[in-house]
Write a structure and sequence with these properties.
The chain has about 350 residues and is α/β, with parallel strands linked by helices. The chain contains 15 helices and nine strands. It binds S-adenosylmethionine (SAM) and iron/sulfur cluster (SF4).
Length: about 350
């Protein structure tokens, strides 16, 4: 199996058959070699820097019903909150003082925040902190809204494709469209956003073939960012009894994503940190290069409960920032507080 890893390192891709073979026969030695080469690729592209993003979870209301997510509309026991534009700006102010130059605004799909309200919020954030990048992660909206928000100053957009398997997507997302989600990602790219896609590992019913398809899809889409995390069940969802994705399988997918898309920004996700105390550090060692500390007010953090036992819900933003910096440095990396644009975005700016 090691030969397949070397072939991937040399060529930057494998066929679907080869990928499935690799995933189904991954042994300890092959995994070690995969992580070593993924880390090497990341060093060639980005050195040993880890970019920090300040995450602001601004609304726990959601009109969707994704089967896996604790924020799904059908979860009547979820505690809901919305941060006002002033409160969001306050989080940015605190984050800016702590050194953050990227703010990630994330929420359920919450139409309470109209296109105009979001555009005006983005203009205010850009007005106050012109050297900071704004990343949105607010789900599916109309192309016109995406355009308005880009014109208002939003730089990036994260929207995981969740799974590249049409069958699995349809099982997990009632009343949502597999094709529409993909169209949204293409629309966002064509508008000019730096785009992040990504998927969960260990979803109930997910096969090695499905995971191979995720990588092949990513290679075609060529996003700037790739979010990969384990599925973790939430008590009050239809998948409460399902098994969580494993640490090893998720790390393998992070490493493969790095080798398929060497220039992508890949976060070591909070879900990995929830699964294992060293989950995020291990992801950095397997090719990830971004960490997203939480800047949401402590009073609301527990309410943004996507899955059981989410970590970092009790600490103040400054504590999160410093704790993660210490962890990243202890793992042998150095923190970069700059905007941290993707290499792809920097190259296209250079050519423009
Ligand atoms: N609502 C927006 C969307 O879905 O694109 C953004 C917020 S949503 C909570 C962010 C991500 O959380 C989703 O893309 C999904 O991959 C992840 N997520 C939701 N429930 C999860 C779970 N039970 N385990 C792991 N990740 C989960
Ligand atoms: Fe809503 Fe996003 Fe959760 Fe789906 S994953 S229920 S869209 S918050």
């Amino acid at each position: 199996m090691k030969q397949l890893v070397h072939k991937l390192y040399a060529r930057g891709e494998l066929s679907k058959v080869e990928l499935v073979d690799l995933l189904e026969h991954m042994d300890v030695e092959t995994r070690k070699e995969l992580f070593r080469l993924a880390r090497l690729r990341r060093e060639q592209a980005y050195g040993n820097k880890v970019y920090l993003r300040g995450l602001i979870e601004f609304s726990s209301y959601c009109r969707r019903n994704c089967l896996y997510c604790g924020l799904r509309a059908g979860n009547r026991e979820a505690e809901r909150y919305r941060l006002s534009p002033e409160e969001i700006l306050e989080c940015c102010r605190e984050g800016y003082e702590l050194g953050f130059r990227t703010f990630v605004l994330q929420s359920g799909e919450d139409p309470w925040y109209t296109a105009d309200l979001l555009a005006s919020l983005i203009r205010d954030i850009k007005g106050g902190f012109p050297d900071a990048a704004i990343t949105l992660s607010i789900g599916e909206r109309e192309a016109g809204t995406y355009r308005l928000l880009y014109e208002a100053g939003a730089d990036r957009f994260l929207m995981r494709h969740e799974t590249a398997s049409r069958r699995l997507y349809q099982e997990l997302h009632p009343l949502m469209s597999f094709d529409h989600r993909r169209q949204c990602l293409e629309t966002l790219q064509s508008i000019g956003y730096q785009v992040g896609a990504g998927f969960m590992v260990g979803l109930p019913g997910q096969t090695a073939e499905d995971l191979a398809e995720d990588l092949i899809y990513l290679r075609t889409l060529n996003p700037d960012m790739i979010g990969i995390g384990p599925f973790i069940p939430h008590d009050k969802t239809p998948l409460a009894q399902a098994k969580a994705g494993s640490l090893e399988d998720t790390l393998v997918m992070v490493a493969l994503a790095r080798l398929f898309l060497p220039e992508a920004l890949i976060p070591a996700t909070t879900a990995l940190g929830t699964l294992h105390p060293q989950g995020r550090e291990l992801a950095l060692k397997a090719g990830a290069n971004v960490v997203m500390p939480n800047l949401s007010p402590v009073a609301v953090r527990k309410k943004y409960a996507l899955y059981n036992n989410k970590i970092c819900t009790g600490d103040e933003s400054a504590q999160c920032r410093h704790c993660l910096e210490l962890r990243i440095e202890a793992a042998g990396f150095s923190v970069d507080m700059g905007r941290g644009d993707s290499l792809k975005a920097l190259a296209s700016r250079h050519h423009a």
